[in-house]
Design goal:
The complex is a heterodimer of chains A (113) and B (117). Chain A is mainly alpha-helical. Chain A is 74% helix and 0% strand. Chain A has three helices and no strands. Chain B contains three helices and no strands. Classes of the chains: A mainly alpha (113), B mainly alpha (117).
């Protein structure tokens, strides 16, 4: 793991790159928590589609965690890429939208039973 | 992958501001995820409080707000980035006061339902 933790000397005493990478890790954890909840709801309320959404959210959490590592590497050396690619951010926003739509649908279905 | 055209407009801002903007985006994403989790948990575990209809409406409301915040987070990240590239003031957003109002109303409603339940 030592290669994953970049050296920040000379760039920023405020450790902005480190906080940014950690921010991605926290976001990945938040997605994983929602994945667990959705997965559980799917099993408890017997909605297979919801269980599938839970698995997809777990995959999204893994992807976000992986991108956090990529970001840490990008930011870890002088002259590295600073601005994030727009696509991972768009993807994360889309994941939240998808999860929320799935949540609404599951609540409506379950409440209607 | 090709990047949106606005990313080559203006001048690159101080990288610390770019990173702060990225973290702000992620903070809003996490806020949306927390609201969504709150809505799902409320629906699943609040079986003993209040009228069921109200619980369902609140849960769906929280999930809808989460969806809106999720979409808004990207729009605001993009707008902030463009404003910084052109040296303009950051755009004002009503997301903060709206979120505060939603949290206050939601919490107050749940509190009343627990007290009366």
């Amino acid at each position: 793991m030592s290669s994953v933790v970049p050296s920040y000397e000379g760039r920023d005493p405020g450790l902005q790159p480190e906080r940014t990478a950690l921010s991605w890790s926290r976001t990945a954890l938040a997605i994983a928590v929602n994945a667990l909840l959705v997965l559980r709801s799917g099993f408890v309320s017997d909605q297979p589609a919801l269980a599938v959404l839970g698995v997809l959210l777990f995959a999204a959490a893994a992807a976000a965690a992986a991108y956090g590592v990529v970001r840490a590497r990008e930011l870890g050396h002088e002259g590295g890429v600073v601005m994030p690619s727009a696509w991972p951010l768009l993807a994360v926003a889309a994941v939240v939208l998808l999860a929320a739509v799935g949540g609404v649908a599951s609540i409506v279905v379950e409440a209607g039973r | 992958m090709a990047q949106p055209r606005w990313r080559s407009e203006g001048e690159d801002p101080d990288y610390r501001f770019t990173l702060a903007n990225e973290r702000t985006f992620l903070a809003w994403i996490r806020t949306a995820l927390a609201l969504l989790a709150g809505g799902v948990l409320l629906f699943e575990f609040a079986s003993t409080i209040g009228p069921r209809v109200l619980v369902v409406v609140l849960a769906v409301g929280l999930a809808v707000v989460a969806a809106v915040l999720g979409g808004l987070s990207y729009v605001r990240w993009r707008a902030n980035e463009i404003a910084m590239r052109h040296g303009r003031a950051l755009p004002y957003s009503i997301a903060v006061p709206v979120l505060a109002a939603v949290a206050l109303l939601g919490a107050a409603t749940i509190a009343v339902m627990i007290l009366l339940g």
